[in-house]
Amino acid sequence: MSSRSRDIDDLVVRARQGQARAVGRLISLIEDGAPELRALAAALARDTGRAQVVGITGPPGVGKSTMAGALVAAFRAAGKRVGVLAVDPSSPFSGGALLGDRVRMQEHATDPEVFIRSMATRGHLGGIAWATPQALRVLAAAGYTQVLVETVGVGQSEVEVMALADTTVVVLAPGMGDGVQAAKAGILEVADILVVNKADREGAEQTVRELQHMISLGRREVAGPSWRPPIVCTTAHKTEGIDDLVAAIDEHRAWMLSHGELDARRQRRAEAEVEAIALAQLHGRLGDVLRGSALPGLAKRVVAGDLDVYRAADELIAELTG
Question: How far apart are CA 241 and CA 195, in angstroms?
Fold first, then answer.
């Protein structure tokens, strides 16, 4: 066994003992794309699926971080260990997370049973850092039974959280036109639970009615048993409605277990992750091959108008496979 493998095994052992520093070190290795990733993935394989993953998404300014903080408090009151992955925009200079949710959730940062980590998207458009799936395994291995993934609010690309979470909570707010914008962006389609936050504001009831109408329209297209997303009203900074949200999360998990949906979702998640890794490896190998291929010459012929792009692609494939 190499020294690097021994180091990984030691970090995994210490993470399973609940040592936050080891958890943070493992997530850093994942984010950095370290050579030890294969050894780490092998060490964490049996920890897949141990944590209940709740995704929190929605447009900017609706109070997602406040909502996450209130949920952490509720889960801790129930005696659960909680992990939070707050996926933030990347700094254009350092590549690191810009918003720093440790500051926004400071009241929980000193709780040894809570682990909070800001992760940078590093240009990934789906609102999810590419390293998040493996980071979830690290948190599961460390005994965090409840994991929140809060995504950046970037509109139409927020839908990716659905592929990552067991339960997806879409947070909206009155007076911002969020209902219509969410429908346009397609994020209503990924919602397992809809939350109208800042419900003490004027227009909250109208927002609820709009969402109920949109849900009823979508319901007509669904055959057989299906989950109907509940609408929960909250005022997160006052912790109002948080107990109702926790109850809705529990109800959704129970429904998934009774219908086999939880296993199905996790299998789809694994399929997508395996496919992404395989495609990345193939892309890397293809890049090595293309550098010594006829690609530059074919490109010149396309630019000159002597060859169309589809014929050029056919010739390139013929060369690579022939």
Answer: 10
